[in-house]
Design a protein that fits this description.
CATH superfamily of the largest domain in chain A: PurM-like C-terminal domain
Order of helices and strands of chain A: HEEHEHEEEHEHEHEHE
Oligomer: homodimer
CATH topology of the largest domain in chain A: Phosphoribosyl-aminoimidazole Synthetase, Chain A, domain 2
Number of strands of chain A: 10
CATH class of the largest domain in chain A: Alpha Beta
Strand order of the largest sheet of chain A: 1-2-5-3-4
Number of domains of chain A: 2
Chain lengths: 293, 293
């Protein structure tokens, strides 16, 4: 019997989407949100995202921060499309042994993030999992993006510079529960220097940059010496830790981006880490990162 | 330490919604879907619904039917608001030991239901739960309802007759995996005999009718002898088994409903089971169903 253990998530998803009618219009299944054209002034963004106990948090995690993280991860996905979140639904599948205080603080943490980014909770449900099962928290959200502002992963072109915000690595040391989604920065970027491709760094540059390059039918050259490192992190950690939730985007060489960025966001780094090249050229997509594996 | 074991879901939800900004416009938190006014021609409906292994299905369940059920439950919720579903996202939190065939058949089952009711899958994710944990399947969906067609639970009035579709009871004998959501019937009802209040029967008349009555600030008188029974079911099963996914709705006494219904849906029963009365009168809401408890 073939089980899920023997198959990667990307292959699994590719097999499964063949089995159902899909309404994916503008985006590949790998993009940060589903993009829906309802004929309105803006495009509609839809997103679902799950946190699993023992994988994304532990019972001992401060649930105020877990609540913040649950919402902030989704805000980061909307930002990565150039859009913004509007309405959330939350599903809590919890063992009966979890404390009421844990759940209330989880809600308070979500609430802080909703208020910070102008979103609201409109529904959801709470159900029980059998004793001994991991808690599963699933958020679903709707958002919007102006038609002229939407950015996919697939729009990068040969010659575009590759940029990242902030500093990378160190998520396991605590940053993964306490990060700031780059909504304001992404909105500023799409208004002033519209990126050709953009995504948020959830799995680390080592996994996410190849995804962006593949979606854009390009290769990439990475300047490892340029990678902005979080305190006490080396390049390997910066490339692989994941859960940075910084923006990764591409742009043709433009004048003024760095100066204007520094004026607008003086406390957040913006770093050019490489360039998109012809597909098949540049650093190897197939095995280039295996030595970090 | 107070745990979730010591608190009912209704009380839990009531406490939690105080802790976050909510955008619930037209509906109480108890309605079948969240209703959102985006200023468009129609109202937007949002819904999330979870199935837990060991609670809503077992590993040995035919996953074609589990996939159908997962979607059909949500279709039933949209129908109960007078609306229809459009787009789904699915989150599968699965142990690695689950078979690929199980997951593929789950998708095929969802696909059959999507096609039957004109909906599509636009996204989602698959993630792992630790070994030994229950699988959790969470669906999120968007839909629409014309402004003149939306029906809440709260619109019932004293004197309205209480109707149910189909026959009740027997879900555990297999019906719960193999039911037909009453989308067509609900759409016909809102067009021809707009119900004052409506919901789908997910927890049984014994729990759901009091909810509708409370939301409508009414009491109710139930004609137990009139309850339409599924084959081999008694009144107690019909009231308590739950997962009937039939429509429960209220209407002032109107002429022609039963005749027109029978012409339009000759194979599906429509039964008047009672009447809404003054709040505090009629069958007791507080303890009336305890003898079935």
């Amino acid at each position: 019997m073939k089980t899920l253990e023997g198959i990667g998530e990307d292959e699994l998803i590719a097999r499964l989407v063949e089995l159902v009618p899909t309404g994916i219009k503008d985006e590949g299944p790998g993009d940060d949100c589903a993009v829906v054209d309802d004929g309105g002034e803006d495009l509609v963004l839809l997103k679902t995202d799950a946190l699993v106990e023992g994988v994304h948090f532990i019972r001992e995690s401060d649930s105020l921060k877990v609540g913040w993280k649950a919402v902030a991860r989704v805000v980061s996905d909307f930002a990565a499309m150039g859009g913004f979140p509007e309405r959330f639904l939350v599903t809590l599948a919890l063992p009966g042994s979890i404390s009421l205080e844990w759940v209330e603080n989880f809600y308070r943490g979500m609430g802080t993030c909703f208020e910070r980014y102008g979103a609201v909770l409109v529904g959801g449900e709470t159900c029980r999992v059998p004793s001994g099962s991991a808690a599963v928290i699933s958020l679903a959200a709707t958002g919007r993006v102006e038609r002229g502002s939407v950015v996919m992963r697939s729009g990068g072109n040969v010659g575009d510079a590759i940029w990242v915000t902030g500093e990378l690595g160190g998520s396991l040391a605590g940053k993964h529960l306490d990060f700031t989604p780059r909504l304001e920065q992404a909105r500023w970027l799409v208004e002033h220097f519209k990126p050709t491709a953009m995504m948020d760094l959830s799995d680390g540059v080592a996994r996410d940059l190849p995804r962006l390059a593949i979606a854009s039918s390009c290769g990439f050259q990475l300047d490892q010496a340029a990678i902005p490192l979080s305190e006490n992190c080396d390049v390997k950690q910066a490339l692989q830790d994941g859960e940075d939730f910084e923006l990764l985007f591409t742009l043709p060489e433009v004048h003024g981006l760095e100066d204007e960025w520094q004026q607008k966001f003086p406390e957040l780094k913006l770093t050019k880490i490489g360039i998109l090249v012809e597909k098949g050229a540049g650093d190897s997509l197939a095995g280039g990162w295996d030595h970090f594996g």
